[in-house]
């Protein structure tokens, strides 16, 4: 495995998964990349540097890089602005040639009621160019 891409949103669950993923990346000698996909409304240009939420997303990514550094891993972090989060994640996975895409989510239904999840999770599971690990928060 060469490149692991984690979709990072800054939740406490994301932080726990990131710490575990850093240890996994060290063990497999993989490059770890973090991405925050900011959904940009149609009222703004998709690449608007002042899009609502961009500054907060950059702060979350800085925090994530710091967590990785604490774990002994240098992680590259990118803010991707897109109209839809799922499409942004899939495009980023293609661009960095990810060997693995890691997502976190919280359960809205029991896993077997909708095994592909809903929304972003369902889109990514259907369209990702690489294997996807979905890490649900414990109930």
Number of helices: 4
Report how far the terminal alpha carbons are from each other: 30 Å
Rg, please?
15 Å
Q: Report the portion of residues in β strands.
A: 15-25%
Largest sheet: 5 strands, parallel
> H/E series, N to C?
EHEHEHEHE
Identify low-pLDDT runs. Answer: none
Shape: globular
Task: Name the features.
alpha/beta
Q: Would you give an account of this structure?
A:
With 139 residues, the chain is of the alpha/beta class. It is 38% helix and 24% strand. It contains four helices and five strands; from the N terminus they run E-H-E-H-E-H-E-H-E. It has a five-stranded parallel sheet, sandwiched between helices. Strand 4, helix 4 and strand 5 form a beta-alpha-beta unit. The longest helix has 17 residues. The protein is globular, with a radius of gyration of 15 Å. The chain starts with a strand and ends with a strand. The mean pLDDT is 89.
Question: What would a concise description of this structure say?
Answer:
This protein is an alpha/beta fold. The chain is 38% helix and 24% strand.
Structural topology:
Blueprint: E1 3-7, H1 12-28, E2 31-39, H2 54-70, E3 75-82, H3 85-95, E4 100-105, H4 120-127, E5 132-136
Parallel strand pairs: 1-2, 1-4, 2-3, 4-5
Helix pairs in contact: 3-4
């Amino acid at each position: 495995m060469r490149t692991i891409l984690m979709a990072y949103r800054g939740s406490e669950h994301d932080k726990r998964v990131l710490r575990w993923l850093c240890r996994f990346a060290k063990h497999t000698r993989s490059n770890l990349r973090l991405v925050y996909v900011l959904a940009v409304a149609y009222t703004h240009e998709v690449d608007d540097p002042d899009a609502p939420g961009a500054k907060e997303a950059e702060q979350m990514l800085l925090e994530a890089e710091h967590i990785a550094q604490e774990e002994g891993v240098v992680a590259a972090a990118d803010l991707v602005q897109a109209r839809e989060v799922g499409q942004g994640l899939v495009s980023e996975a293609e661009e960095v040639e990810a060997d693995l895409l890691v997502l976190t989510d919280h359960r809205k239904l029991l896993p077997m009621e909708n095994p592909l999840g809903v929304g972003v999770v369902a889109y990514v599971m259907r369209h990702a160019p690489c294997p996807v690990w979905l890490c649900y928060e414990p109930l």
